[in-house]
Amino acid sequence: MDLEVRHLRVICAIAEAGSLTRAAASLCMTQPGLSAQLRRIEALLGGPIFDRGQAGAVPTVLGELVLTRARAILPGIDDLLADTARAARCGTAPGRVRLGSVGAPLLADLIVATRELVPGSEVTTRCQYSPSPLLDDLAAGRLEAAVLGDNPGHELPPREGVVLRPVVTEPVFALLPSTHPLADHEEANLTDLIEEDWAMPHPDSDRTREYWASVFSLMGRQPCTPYEAEGRQLIDIIRAGLAVSLCQATFIEVPGVTVRPLAGDPLWYRHVLGWRRDGPVAAHGEEIVRRVAQGYRATCAAIPAYARWRERHPESPRLPE
């Protein structure tokens, strides 16, 4: 027996259901039939994929490996099947516009603009923490457009066939526990925060950590960084009062967390839109930039700390009209 796509679906269904009985029901199979199929799959792969007991079906070490690979493979297969089915129905290649984004407040406006300017297209999205793999995907034709970002002195490299269009450069703000003494101030001084424990995202190919380190070096020291986290985990660490960090100026405050500008604006972040020169977005690139910038203005106005900063700095940041 050769390994088939349906076998991967069976393994994922069992892991998701947590038991063979529930998985069998979701797959419209009998429990004995599913057990027999799982035994054949395990024999093919060389060992048990699940430990089966009173706690249900728990993946083994081998099972975790198989599940990781299966979950990475199946979405691509599903996309392929959907695209070929659509192409067969229409008699033409599917009009999909694939968008990517880093963590930034521009994606929703990019989606809306793309739908309006490229009517009839199917818009899909996926996100990455770092812009580097998204830029690679643009260059390779795996994306049509993306929201990217970089820092001064660490700009994104030009790539053949890709247009990179800056939207706005904004200051980087401090991310503090709401109980922090500086949370009651209008702005925070980086020299005060340098003495504290920090939480920072994992060093990545976008070189953000490298940029931050270069600014800290001008102060003569680097912060203590016992916590490496991003997303929800980083916010939880800040909320618990364990550390401070940095964030985009458009970060939306949540209970227990406060955003404050840094005195003197020592750090900056640049939002960038990228698209393929030969893609469906190219003819509308400048209009999309204008619409995304318009959406960014609305976002700025809804962020109290950033709105106050912009009132004090009316000439910055400059946005496309």
From TrEMBL:
| Residue ranges of domain HTH lysR-type in the record | 1-60
User: What domain of life is recorded for the organism?
Assistant: Bacteria
Report any Pfam family annotated for this entry.
LysR_substrate
Q: Which cellular component terms (GO) are annotated to the entry?
A: protein-DNA complex
Q: Which PROSITE patterns match?
A: HTH_LYSR (PS50931)
Which keywords, in A-to-Z order, does the entry hold?
DNA-binding, Transcription, Transcription regulation
MF terms (GO), sorted A to Z: DNA binding; DNA-binding transcription factor activity
- What family does the entry list? Belongs to the LysR transcriptional regulatory family.
Q: Under what name is this protein listed? A: DNA-binding transcriptional LysR family regulator
Organism, per UniProt? Answer: Streptomyces griseochromogenes
